[in-house]
Amino acid sequence: MTDISELTKQLENKDSIIRRGVVEKIASVEDESAIDALILALKDKDRFVRQEAVLALKKIGGSKAVEQLNQALNTEKNEFVIDAIKMALERLQSKESAST
Prior knowledge:
By secondary structure, this protein is an all-alpha fold. It has a single domain, classed as Leucine-rich Repeat Variant (Alpha Horseshoe), CATH 1.25.10. It has helices at residues 4-10, 16-29, 35-41, 47-60, 63-75, 79-99. Helix 3 (35-41) runs antiparallel to helix 4 (47-60). The longest helix is centred in the last third of the chain and has 21 residues, at 79-99. The protein is globular, with a radius of gyration of 13 Å. It starts with a helix and ends with a helix. The model has no long low-confidence stretch (mean pLDDT 91).
């Protein structure tokens, strides 16, 4: 069992490669309990960490993930992360409409 709170602490590591790996590990949980940790990663200074957080939120899904991705879309400056957010939102919204 992965301890999300322990992993979340590691998101403060100075090394962006470690932070990115932590986000990947959090994503592997595929549980909505991981979303709060991923919200922190969406605000990371490294664009690769933010991009990984977007992919993780897309993987986990749910209304909270959609809400956070929409917020990130309004504040994100990097075009690659913006594209990832748009693709994630598209995918999540099409999943939602298919299940209704």
